[in-house]
Specification:
5-stranded antiparallel sheet, 11 helices, elongated, two-stranded antiparallel ribbon, single chain, 350 residues, alpha+beta
Length: 350
Amino acid sequence: MEGSSELPADSDSPPASAEVADASASPKRGGSNFRRFFIRGLAIVLPTVLTIGVLLWAANLVDKNIAAPINAGVRELVIRFTQYPPAEEIDFLEAFDQIDATQTDAFELFNEQRLEALGLQNVTRVPRAVERQITLDWMQSRADTIRLARRSAFEQRWNQYAVGGWPVLNLIGLLLAIVLVYIVGAFLSRSIGNRLWRIGENAIGRVPLVGRVYPAFKQITDFIFGDDSEDKLKFNRVVAVQYPRKGLWSVGLVTGNTMRTVQDQAGEHCLTVFVPSSPTPFTGYVITVPVSDTVDLPVTIEDALKFAVSGGVVVPPRQIIPERAPQSPPGVARTEPVPVSDEATQRQSA
């Protein structure tokens, strides 16, 4: 028709509204993908980084508090009972800065006497070579300063062999610590050593303040390193209990039976359950519950501790609930998009 402003419909090209929708949805999908991939990568990398960090922190703690004192003792024994290492002039001069006040007074007296013998007591500026020689003569004439210079030389030789800035010879202290712990354990496992250890523990328990702190640490170490023959906290199975109130379920570890008075008041057999906290399973709550209020879980102690440490993220494989497709609420019909035919599209565009 003449003068008509209508344009012929092009069935192959998408509507303008669809193009706008696709343009607006593309950045949104990119942002959601970045967030999803970043969180996934973080979940993969973070456990490894945390594990390495904890191991390095533990190694640094052991190196500073256990290996370092042993290594210092080893170096001191070598210096006092052997002639290694011999000190050189540079070692004496470097060790001169480490002398104490009493040694400084002795050096000042020696220096005045030597300058007077050389006729330089009234000289304003003593030649540097003379000062150096007087210092060396004084340092080499005393047993304590010779030992000080040898100690400085030994520390330099000790730190000479390093990997990444860490002296390799520090492993001597760590190995000696392992050997000493083994010897102490072997000695205390004997009847005489065990008896002496009990006497020492009783003496420590009588010390004010220490007697209150020591039993708590001893319980923790017995829990981690105790033998089956000792009084160790023993977990025999995993249960679920409604704690801290009805309707809230917690995973707990059965440690044994409870006290007689508590069981008599409950009127039935009760259990003592340790409910570990997250993310530190060595702390938690000890509760007493009737057997009828517990649900046995077919999981291992290790799986239960992993569940507690991860905050419920790491679920035992056999306890994982499979995901299901979302369902519509009862009484609400599920609607699906109805396909529109090409013929209907042309009628709407006309």
